[in-house]
Design goal:
CATH class of the largest domain: Alpha Beta
Strand order of the largest sheet: 3-4-5-2-6-1-7-8-9
CATH superfamily of the largest domain: P-loop containing nucleotide triphosphate hydrolases
Order of helices and strands: EHEEEEHEHHEHHEHEHEHEEEEH
Number of domains: 2
Number of strands: 14
Shape: globular
Structural class: alpha/beta
Radius of gyration: 21 Å
Number of helices: 10
Largest sheet: 9 strands, mixed
Length: 349
């Protein structure tokens, strides 16, 4: 059977994850979606649309979706759902995992790469993070989990923008892009969002299209002249200075930077350096992805990873007249940018 694409839905407490999920499950979109929830709370899926089987932890919706409550091991729950699907007991073509508001989505994402049984049945499609426009600035200041949820995202959806001034939303978007420049930012109003903006985003698939916010790239260029050659324990703020000088700065632990080069990499040197990088900084490297130009190769090489789990694949051929070069984005907690840049420079031909 074809692999089931899986979406991780995360966001801080009260951001609107469950409202969005309810909307997805109620709409007649033609998908049969299995949902795994860490817990059922009072605000979860309306009882009227559920048909509860008292012997199971699996709930069937009136529109063909199924919902599964999980308070134990995620791998076991994924296995149970896959087995029931294979046996024809339930039918679904997509999986959504809703995390609790205080959860770090990293371990959930890693599950799809670390367990062979899970990898046989599921493919991680994307991490979607719902961000509360009204409270996000304070949450990002006070809670590392909120920063991590933004850092892991393939897509960011802003809720409650209708009750926040436009200037505040702009300031929040600037901060979110500083933390994670590769995740597009959209808006969600009481859970209303086109299904195409939630499912089948292919945010985790290896491909040679690396989405990075162009404003962030411009800011990186602007920053380049002001960078300090700091070590791992540097206290300087390397975040971009190009966006807005008038607002208070927020020194987030989770931040991103982009590495680019128009010279090819030496394959052996790069493999060795990336291996050592992941070994040392893997726990702090939340998401990373890149399109790489290797010496002597007529095809692009695409790589990405979550923490210590890194993979690569052969991408499309370089086009005739297409400028060759490498572009890599790293998102993590207090990553020593200078160490990464210097090491990568030393791997160039």
């Amino acid at each position: 059977m074809a692999l089931v694409p899986a979406t991780i839905l995360t966001g801080f407490l009260g951001a609107g994850k469950t409202t969005l999920l309810n909307r997805i499950l109620k709409e007649p979109h033609g998908h049969k979606i299995a949902v795994i929830e860490n817990e059922f709370g009072e605000e979860n899926i309306d009882n009227e649309i559920l048909v509860q089987d008292s012997n199971e932890q699996i709930v069937e919706m009136s529109n063909g979706c199924v919902c599964c409550t999980v308070r134990g091991d995620l791998i076991a729950a994924l296995g149970t759902l896959a087995q029931k699907r294979n046996d024809g007991e339930i039918s679904f073509d997509h999986l959504v995992i809703e995390t609790t508001g205080l959860a770090n989505p990293g371990p959930v994402a890693q599950t799809f790469f670390m367990d062979d049984e899970v990898a046989m049945h599921y493919m991680l499609d994307a991490v979607i993070t719902v961000v509360d426009s009204r409270h996000a600035m304070q949450q990002l200041d006070e809670h590392e989990e909120a920063q991590r949820q933004v850092g892991f995202a393939d897509k960011l959806l802003l809720s409650k923008t209708d009750i926040v001034a436009a200037g505040q939303v702009d300031e929040l978007v600037t901060r979110l892009k500083r933390i994670n420049p590769r995740a597009p930012v959209g808006k969600v109003h009481f859970g209303e969002v086109p299904i195409a903006e939630v499912l089948d985003l292919r945010g985790f698939n290896l491909n040679d299209k690396l989405e990075i916010d162009p404003d962030f790239l411009a800011a990186e260029e602007h920053d380049h002249d002001h960078d300090h050659a700091c070590g791992e324990h540097c206290d300087h703020d390397h975040h971009d200075h190009a966006h807005d000088h008038h607002h208070a700065r927020h020194a987030d632990d989770v931040a991103a930077f982009v590495y680019r080069s128009d010279r090819p990499f030496d394959t052996a040197r790069l493999d060795d350096f990336l291996g050592r990088l992941v070994q040392v900084y893997g726990p702090r490297m939340m998401r990373y992805k890149g399109v790489i130009w290797m010496e002597g190769a007529d095809r692009k090489v695409v790589f990405q990873g979550v923490h210590q789990m890194m993979g690569s694949d052969i991408g499309a051929k370089w086009g005739d007249g297409e400028p060759r070069g490498s572009k890599m984005v790293f998102i993590g907690k207090n990553l020593p940018k200078e160490t990464f840049v210097t090491g990568l420079d030393q791997c160039l031909v």
